[in-house]
Amino acid sequence: MSKTADLFAASAAALIVACVAGWAVSDTQARATTPATVQIDPFAAMTSATQVPTEHFTDFSFVFN
Prior knowledge:
single chain, mainly alpha
């Protein structure tokens, strides 16, 4: 093999060993907090809504010539 290929193989092997060693030695205890659940009451939202914009649609599904 050429010197370039030998150097590439050696650096790849060293990188793999370093990554595996770092992963094995790490002792971080990541604490994932549970997200606060937000409950929306749809009935209260519908009854307390004020000044809601309205839309008017024209139904063109039955058009006869």
